[in-house]
Design a protein that fits this description.
It is a single chain. This protein has about 90 residues and is mainly beta. The protein has no helices and 7 strands. The strands form 2 sheets. It has a 4-stranded antiparallel beta sheet, with no helix packed on it. Strands 4-1-7 form a 3-stranded mixed beta sheet, with no helix packed on it. The relative contact order is 0.36.
Length: about 90
């Protein structure tokens, strides 16, 4: 774990060469579960194709990635572990 109980998660968006021109990805933090079992998506940032973002988060916090233009699901869920630095590659 990094200082203050946070961990660092790097989200890297590496789409296929032909998909690069179609836009980037949107990164969402997943909030608490509602009674129906869904989790609220809170948009955090955009990840341009071929680049990455670093998020400081708590272990157990979960994240989702959608295509920035179409909204298609690229990564259903990644929940941070206690490992100090983690990398998630989305393709």
């Amino acid at each position: 774990m990094v200082a203050d109980g946070f961990v660092e998660v790097i989200f890297r968006y590496e789409p296929a060469a032909g998909a690069r021109a179609a836009g980037g990805a949107s990164l969402f933090w997943l909030g608490k579960r509602s009674k129906d079992g869904t989790q609220q998506e809170v948009k955090y940032t955009e990840i341009p194709a071929g680049l990455r973002v670093l998020e400081r988060t708590h272990p157990g916090d979960c994240w989702r990635v959608r295509h920035a233009v179409t909204g298609a699901l690229l990564l259903d869920k990644h929940c941070a572990t206690i490992e100090g630095r983690q990398e998630v590659v989305i393709s």
